[in-house]
Write a structure and sequence with these properties.
Layout lengths: L1 E6 L11 H4 L4 H15 L2 E6 L3 H10 L6 E5 L8 H10 L3 E5 L21 E4 L4 H15 L1
Parallel strand pairs: 1-2, 1-3, 3-4, 4-5
Helix pairs in contact: 3-4
The protein binds 1,3,4-trihydroxy-5-OXO-cyclohexanecarboxylic acid (DQA).
The site of 1,3,4-trihydroxy-5-OXO-cyclohexanecarboxylic acid has 10 residues, from loops.
């Protein structure tokens, strides 16, 4: 099983950015935690982070025919991007939406998620451990 882990804008600033909301771990620590978790499970994993919407669309399209699933934290593009929604629909890969914070308890503008309609699951408010829960979900989904 091969998974692509996509992180959107400002998630490269983890650890520096609003640590009271997003925690003190940096992006490299997140990548290592997920990588170690997948190694233990025998899952192949690739990572992609970008601050640019079109690059995120390209990464989703690039997963077609190569990956068995996607874990995506689209960050602010969650609340604005029809292009990311359409990309996930286009590739048809099982995709889990992850948010580190509990977006349901935050500002009104964070209550909308465009991508959610194309995702098999949403996990939010579990910190960076939410990515591991997303991997578990996709593993179970893959096993059928
Ligand atoms: C986020 C929540 C979004 O509203 C925000 O724009 C982010 C991060 C999260 O992981 O909690 O950048 O996706």
């Amino acid at each position: 099983m091969k998974l692509l882990i996509i992180n959107g804008p400002n998630l490269n600033m983890l650890g520096i950015r609003e640590p009271g909301i997003y925690g003190k771990e940096n992006y490299e620590t997140l990548v290592k935690m997920i990588g170690d978790y997948c190694t233990k499970k025998g899952i192949e994993v690739e990572f992609y982070q970008s601050n640019h919407e079109g690059d995120l669309v390209d990464a989703i399209q690039g997963a077609y025919g190569k990956m068995d699933g996607i874990v995506i934290n689209p960050a602010a593009y969650t609340h604005t991007s029809v292009a990311l929604l359409d990309a996930v629909k286009a590739v048809g890969l099982p995709t889990v939406e992850v948010h580190i914070s509990d977006v349901s308890k935050r500002e009104d503008f964070r209550q909308i998620s465009y991508i959610r309609a194309a995702c098999v699951q949403t996990i939010c408010g579990h910190g960076t451990k939410g990515y591991l829960a997303a991997i578990d979900y996709l593993e179970a989904h893959y096993a059928g």
